[in-house]
Amino acid sequence: MANYVRLEYIFYNNPKPSGVQFKGVFGDRSIGKTHGVLNYLCNNIQENESILFLRRNKLEMNFAPFVSKYSAAFNQNWKLEKNTISCDKKVIMYLSALSLAERGKHNNYENPHITNIIIDEVFCEKPNKNEFQEMQTWITTVSRRTGFPFHPITIWLLGNHNYGHSPIMENLGIYASGGKKQKTDNGVYLFSDTPSPKSVINVKNPLIKNIEISKDNFPILSWWFNKIAYGLFDCGAFLYIKEVETASSPFNFDIKCSINTKIILKQRIPPIYVQNYECLRFFSVEKGRIQV
Description:
The chain contains seven helices and 15 strands. By secondary structure, it is α/β, with parallel strands linked by helices. Strand 10 (221-225) and strand 11 (228-234) form a beta hairpin. The protein starts with 7 loop residues before the first helix and ends with a strand.
């Protein structure tokens, strides 16, 4: 089983923005939000480009465990030097905090220049009320380049949706279609594609989805796991995994292989939707292929 969720919609949607855009991944702890985004960005970083990784404040700036964890996970030789991460003698990531935005204005982020900012743990019980303004300062600081001011940049907001609140989200005005703030008890919300901080953000979710199953559409495979039964349904253009009343056998290696076989036997690898977060444990998507 892969150790992170591959969120291909949010990665490949608008990969080359013309200005400032925001992309976010919100969900429960340890589902792979930071891992998935870092893995994608580090594997697609271009020559003379880098990432800015921001914690909330300078008290959270112990990056040694962070470097050790992800350099091993990605099998890369990361080296921590002051507040930068280099790989093969090239700077790939700057490290700082939202609260150090004013101090960051005096640093040189032009070589390599920053095209992606990751703000980790955007939700907090007692956040600094000025975090939105601090984020704006960082954006203008790192997107300035001699001869090419305000180059395109993507801001990644990662956080546990059921933990505290975020002044950044408040000021961006991110709402679900029902008019309520984006929040769910058991799922992942994604958003992307906005030209500026004040624009309306299009809320989309490629994985968590409620789908009506017709009475004559029986699961092509069923299993139980931790006393919960699941079924895999063939819906033509896509496959759907949801909870069912009964299942034929416990989840084991044979079931695992059967899920994989029934997915790849389709003429083309189809979209895979799930009913809730629990269903995500059965697969992830890596480079266009389904890993079960």
